[in-house]
Amino acid sequence: MTTRKLDITLAVLLTATLATWGIGEAGAAGVAAMVSMLVLTFVKGRLIALDYMGLRPVRLFWRGMLVGWLVLVLSLIALAYWIGLSA
User: Fold this and answer.
1) Which among 79, 77, 75 has a CA at the least distance from the CA of 67?
2) Where does 26-57 have alpha helices with state H?
3) Each residue's pLDDT tens digit in the chain (87 positions)?
4) Dihedral through CA 47, CA 43, CA 20, CA 70, nearest 10?
5) Total-model pTM
């Protein structure tokens, strides 16, 4: 992993963090805000796992396990939100 690649990754992570903060500070609510925050969280989690944890060159199984765990957690959060909407 080159320093340039890590710098770009850091810039994307900072931008996604600022976007998430902006959504929260704006008081955005609803499905669109929830989906955008979950997508930003997925992007951030994937970048951290693959680039900063160094899992990009490892076997597909291990990358799949970590990304799958991330998808599972975010799916459960989305499910809890959806159940909360109908209650």
Assistant:
1) 75
2) 31-47
3) 788 998 999 999 999 999 999 999 998 889 999 999 999 999 999 999 999 888 989 999 999 999 999 999 999 999 999 999 887
4) -100
5) 0.86
